[in-house]
Amino acid sequence: MVALAEEEMDNPTFRSDTVLSDVHLHCPSKRHLMVRLNAVGQPVFLSYFKLLWSTEDLASGKHVREVTTGRELQCRSGDELCDKDSSNTEKEGELNSEGVEALLDDDGDLEVVRRPRSASDLQAEDVLRDIVCPVILMKGKEDAFEDEEQECTCSDVVKIEHTMATPLEDVGKQVWRAAFLLADYILFKRDTFRCCSVLELGGGTGITSIIMGTVAKRVYCTDVGEDLLTMCEQNVALNKHLLEPGDPEAPYSWSEEEIADLLDHCSVIMAADVFYDDDLTDALFRTLYRITHNLRDSCTVYLALEKRLNFTLRHMDVTCEAYSHFRNTLNDLENLQDGKMKYTVEPIKLDFCQSLVYERIEQLELWKVMAEHLT
């Protein structure tokens, strides 16, 4: 796996304030070690993202466990989901009913209950939604982090350096739900991606490419900006227990051999959560067209995103402008008639197993685009 720059990607102009991802609040890592400041002075944290099953289990075909809010499900090696125990569901329903009554005071008004502070209190309250508040550990306090690191086995943990809050132009340095969704799909359909050559556009921290690297033959993880690519390369090195890092001839640049290999063998292109700005969306679709047109063979494109709702003064209503622009551009790609390429678009149902702990909200979407040569 190699981290490379997107040399053909246009450079859009962003207009926004600080953006914060909430993924770190829903991951099993209860502590976030601040390891350094990046080149622009932003704090960089190290988090452990634990798989709900190990790569060894995936290879052996053992039972796979899915965790969702409210109940537990099981499946066997990615087969159909089945209820683990219907009696558990009934019991949880009773607890939920009792909880609602407890939240009302004598007058019937809603009474807000504070979240329990300790793990024992959480168990006593039978809280099903596992949300943890990050504990920031400063550099020099690594000893406090050792216990958690020892609990992480090589086969079921992805280590990622990331930031927690950035300007819009640096959101690639954070971790986002759509990247976890695409990683889930990769592990669920691992036989589909086995031995493939894969290109990721807008790889960010590299977490999706790292997961892909556990099954694919070769992964080219690309993005824009030396500081971001440095972070991505560091994350690849942190996860060498899961994959074999590549060795590019020059840092963050394409060699003639790599370009030839990509054009001759790439069969999968993927992108996760890069459709939050209209200019960036346009640039990515132009890049997609250029690359798929130049590939020797047809390929499949996977696009993961989160539909974000925003209240705008212009509309005086809640809108999804960035998502609407994405859908319109996707429709334009499907309806393109240039006599050279044919693009077939279809949504992917999100009923596959969850392998990473995050909140799979209903606003998440995954799209599959088949790019075929006509001549």
UniProtKB/TrEMBL annotation:
InterPro entries: Methyltransf_16, METTL22, SAM-dependent_MTases_sf. The keyword GTP-binding does not apply. The keyword Methyltransferase applies. Keywords: Methyltransferase, S-adenosyl-L-methionine, Transferase. It holds the Pfam family Methyltransf_16. Gene3D superfamilies: Vaccinia Virus protein VP39. One of its GO terms (biological process) is methylation. GO terms for cellular component: nucleus. One of its GO terms (molecular function) is protein methyltransferase activity. This is Methyltransferase like 22. The gene is METTL22.
